[in-house]
Amino acid sequence: MDLLNDKTNAEATSKYNSDIAFSKAISKAFIQELKELLLRRSKHLLPFDEVKEKLELWHGRDIGLTSVPLNSIVGSQGRYRNFSRHFLPLDENLRNRWKQIETAVASGKDLPPVELYKVCNAYFVKDGHHRISVAKSKNKHSIEAKVFEYDCDASLDDKTELEQIAILETYHKFLKETGLRSARNVDLYLTVLGGYPILMEHIQRHKFYLEKKSGTKISIKEAAVSWYDKIYSPMADLIRKNGIISQFPHRTEADFYIWITKYKRLVFQDIFEPEKVVPDIESYAKIFSNPFRKFRGKLRKHFGFVKY
Q1: 28-37, 87-96, 104-113: which range is least confident on average?
Q2: Across all residues in the chain, what is the average pLDDT?
Q3: For 44, which DSSP code?
Q4: 8 exposed, middle or buried (CB, 10 Å; 0-12, 13-18, 19+)?
Q5: Among 33, 70, 178, 293, fewest CB within 10 Å belongs to which?
Q6: What is the pLDDT of residue 199?
Q7: SS3 letters for the chain?
Q8: Are 140 and 173 in contact (CB under 8 A)?
Q9: Are 141 and 234 within one domain?
């Protein structure tokens, strides 16, 4: 007579396999943490509550069930320290629950959909962390989710890192104060912190010129629209035509606008004069796109000294 019947043997095997699977997942998380530490890359999930507060995300709406790419899930509400950026487990205390989910998935049981918050093109976990972790460990590409979406004027995606939240916060405040998102649907994202006060200074100077010319007070939002149409957009067109952006794909038009104006101390209060700017853009491009600088820049980015 068999000491173990088929059912008991199957259960024991399933528990053993799920235990091995968790051990592999937590070991992989440890190796990835070391690798990302050496390369100075972010290994953290984004904390939803912090993102929500800084970007003032107040009104979420239920958009129902949908299939969500696992790689687009980048954050968590409350458990961002328990899992790696790749949703591998970081805490041994997760083992029992993780094993239960893995066993259920391996046996073909239907599990309820996870619950996610959507902010732009990024997703944050409200409920279902272990289900997502197990799905990632099994190399799944998507998961069924109930999604609550928040409107956002910044830009988040699967490449957004924790350090960028401060930039997004200042971007949100800049758009809120200037009204440029609603007036012109602009994309003025910067990759460096401290740039938006510079843009505001340019707008304030343009506002002073407009008021002096007209003899009447105008709002900061009116000045921002005038600055965008008459100064920023023409200069951004010249930057695009120069082609320097293609050599620095991790930078933006707004980055180059600030750097070129700082490079030659250009601040246009009144009207934009292309003939004065083209030589400066060409000079800047010549200096900063030479092979040595580009190679050094790639090395700095690869090792995390230049983040974005």
Answers
A1: 28-37
A2: 84
A3: P
A4: exposed
A5: 293
A6: 95
A7: CCCCCHHHHHHHHHHHHHHHHHHHHHHHHHHHHHHHHHCCCCCCCEEHHHHHHHCCCCCEEEEEEEEEEHHHEEEECCCCCCECCCCCECCHHHHHHHHHHHHHHHCCCCCCCEEEEEECCEEEEEECHHHHHHHHHCCCCEEEEEEEEECCCCCCCCCCCHHHHHHHHHHHHHHHHHCHHHHHCCCCCCCCCCHHHHHHHHHHHHHHHHHHHHCCCCCHHHHHHHHHHHHHHHHHHHHHHHCHHHHCCCCCHHHHHHHHHHHCCCCCCCCCCHHHHHHHHHHHHHHHCCHHHHHHHHHHHHCCCCCC
A8: no
A9: no
Among 94, 116, 150, the domain-final residue is 150
Residue 32's pLDDT band, with cuts at 50, 70 and 90, is: confident
Q: Are 136 and 70 in contact (CB under 8 A)?
A: yes
Please tell me the pTM assigned to this model: 0.82
Does residue 180 lie in a domain region?
yes
Query: Predicted confidence band at 114 (pLDDT cuts at 50, 70, 90)?
Result: very high
Scan for tokens 């390369």, then name that residue.
Answer: 39
Say if 1 falls within a structural domain. Answer: no
Q: Quick one: what percent of the chain has pLDDT higher than 90? A: 48
CATH number at 45 reads: 3.90.1530.10
Nearest-CA neighbor of 83 among 19, 122, 130? 130
Residue 258 lies in a domain: yes
What's residue 300's pLDDT? Answer: 60
The predicted structure's pLDDT at residue 301: 59
Q: Are residues 136 and 266 in the same domain?
A: no
Q: Tell me how far apart the alpha carbons of residues 235 and 259 are, in angstroms, rounded to a whole number.
A: 12
